[in-house]
Design goal:
133 residues; 60% helix; globular; mainly alpha; single chain
């Protein structure tokens, strides 16, 4: 992306990298834990379910604040940071999140969900439909 200038604009280099790191260090691992304890194994540990539900809500709040300031995570253009983060947000139901509580995330989520390439890619693993909030 950096070499071609596509999905990673030079003017938005550092914000794109920062939000890509946020996905790799926060959203990915923590929302993955939410999937495990909230969606797949809710009866295993009430503590873990509560802890990861709360963390998921906190991460959505961080994301909502960012998307209230910027159209996309890295800035004005769709980037690799959005591509890396969106699939985690596409499982908002698994995390027990009501997207209606996060208006900026909902706007961003629906805009990306409407992209033709995202629609084609989403159905690859299991011919599923993109969830609508």
């Amino acid at each position: 992306a950096e070499r071609t200038g596509k999905l990673h604009r030079r003017r938005d280099h550092w914000p794109t990298i920062e939000w890509l790191m946020w996905q790799m260090g926060g959203a990915g691992p923590m929302l993955g834990q939410a999937h495990h304890f909230v969606h797949f194994n809710p009866d295993v540990s009430e503590y873990a379910k509560a802890r990861y539900s709360k963390e998921a809500e906190r991460l959505y709040g961080v994301l909502d604040r960012r998307l209230g300031e910027s159209t996309y995570l890295g800035g004005k253009d769709y980037s690799i940071a959005d591509i890396a983060t969106w699939p985690w947000i596409a499982r908002f139901q698994w995390q027990g999140i009501d997207l209606n509580q996060f208006s900026h995330v909902k706007r961003w989520y629906l805009e990306i969900a409407d992209r033709p390439a995202v629609k084609r890619g989403y159905v690859v693993p299991n011919d599923a439909e993109i969830p609508k909030p």
